[in-house]
Sequence to fold (105 residues):
Amino acid sequence: MKNFINIADIEKKDLRKIIDHAKLQKEKRSNLNKSAIDPDAYLTDKILIMIFEKSSTRTRISFELAMKQLGGQLVVLNIQKKVIMEVGMKVYMIQQKFYPSMVIL
Fold:
């Protein structure tokens, strides 16, 4: 799966696989410290860039912790509302300059 934009776009069996895998990963982490990196470290050498129009502390912290636990790195960009209109171009430029593995808007 390349993009996950709308839950309605995913078949039930694929969604079930994602949920079952998440439960298994959570169970594996039960004895680890919250800041410890997973032994599997699925996102090693991966970069996530998050683009926010408004600050979102809970979302940012959740993704920061998850990326750290999975071995990845996170960059957070706060963009003013007037720039959001051109966000498609900004994402393209970010991808060309920084080669992130994932971008979240």
DSSP finds four helices and three strands in the chain. The helical segments are 12-28, 57-69, 81-84, 87-98.
